[in-house]
Amino acid sequence: MESNQIMILVAMVIYMAVVIGIGVVYAKKANKSSENYYLGGRSLGPWVTAMSAEASDMSGWLLMGLPGVAYWCGLADAAWTAIGLAVGTYVNWLIVSKRLRRYSIRANNSITLPEFFSNRFREKNKVIMTLAALFILIFFTVYAASCFVTCGKLFATLFGLDYKVMMIVGAIFVLVYTILGGFLAESASDFMQAIVMITALVIIVIMATVKAGGPAAVIENAKAIPGFLDFFGLASPTLNEAGEQIIEAGKPVFGEAANYGFLSIASCMAWGLGYFGMPQVLLRFMAIRKEGELKMSRRIAMVWVVISLAIAVFIGLVGRQLYPTTHVTSAGAENIFITLTTSFFSTGIGPIFAGFIMAGILAATISSSDSYLLIAASAFAKNIFQGVAKKNATDKQVMLVTRITLLVIAIIGVIIALDENSVIFTIVSFAWAGFGATFGPIMLFSLFWKRTTRAGAVAGMVGGAAMVFFWKLVIRPLGGAWNIYELLPAFIFSAILIVVVSLLTKKPSKEIEDDFEAVVAGKVEETVVSE
Length: 531
What we know:
Blueprint: H1 3-30, H2 34-39, H3 46-73, H4 75-106, H5 113-120, H6 127-159, H7 163-212, H8 215-223, E1 233-234, E2 247-248, E3 251-252, E4 258-259, H9 262-269, H10 279-287, H11 294-322, H12 330-333, H13 336-344, H14 350-389, H15 395-416, H16 424-448, H17 454-475, H18 487-504, H19 510-521
Antiparallel strand pairs: 1-4, 2-3
Helix pairs in contact: 1-7, 1-14, 3-4, 3-7, 3-10, 3-11, 3-14, 4-9, 4-10, 4-11, 4-19, 5-6, 6-7, 6-14, 6-15, 6-16, 6-17, 7-11, 7-14, 7-15, 8-11, 13-14, 14-15, 16-17, 16-18, 17-18
């Protein structure tokens, strides 16, 4: 390993030590009870709520996946996806956050999403709880795998080490950290990591733009590539038989711009629908100490999201100008942020700075994977083990099962992530669709439609999840007008099922309707926890 690589590694190790330190600090408080471990005792302030929600949401996808898409095929896909995400973030904070915070208290002080859905419909046999927990396990295991892929690519690219070994090391680090501190440690470190992520993005985009000759030069270069800078067109890299972009006379070869119509735009914008069913974000709404602080959190979250998404897309564009032939596959394109960073900080003490900026990718990965692992483990331990299998289980037993489940999920995630050619954007998009279609519609209907029934909720969850798989594996490969991101049709299908089945079944009991009306009227005892 060269001296530059050693300096980068030292900086990243220092960062990881700080993260572990946070876990140790919060370990005692987190382990007092399962409520503290899973939801932090509803004690988060507005800044931590906002920043940790967005950091855990974006993951390494923000620093690698999104710039990679912009680098590979231009502005359209990346920009419309970013716009959809920004709109979805705002609407979610605006209409869902307060009512979910309030309703989760009314619903027997629910501390997990499966528990909330189950208590919302006052079910006795826990069918909704079990189904919700199982779907969380499935999709978060896939999500965790995407984070492990990010870790593997990061260390393999930086240090020339074996991808699989580095991926497993990253998974072990995340696992140990999550076991230590639970939700409080996760949220506190996510706050720090959100700052690291946006700082890294700002530094790199400024340096890259200056080196490229300014924004005008970046735009001119992008205009020279057919469809690269179009909102309604898509660049088409010309590939050889090995699936790599052809390079001629030192320049990448592109074909004619592909059409980018309404369906393509709707498909990308549909990413915003995912927020209504995203557990790692929804739990932050439930965990804030005061409902009244959610307005401030929304403003903080939106500033962070808009800046981060815009910069991530632009990094892909400027990366294509500075390093047009470095990455010749869509999977390789996701390393453009790493390429820019290591090239800018290659001499003197520069590698130290590069290490801390690379920690931005590690930060994004950790902030997401710890959330995914913890929520998935809680879904099994709290909602299936204690909620269904062993209702008299003690907190100590629940915590033990949680840790065992964390280990199992991590192992499955590692197996999924063994393929080093995995494209982070593709893995994330599937898991995102899974959560969005499974939980998004039922979350909205549970919060805003009194007539929603338990049977409608079950039909919506199962139908939404099934449609994600069916559309992804059967319909979308047909191409043409069918090539729509699976979240959109699955979300619509789930919503239709909820309405139809609810109207065909007996209306909710008076107790359930009373709960709903009390939440709408704001007649729920406020939970306030001092810092």
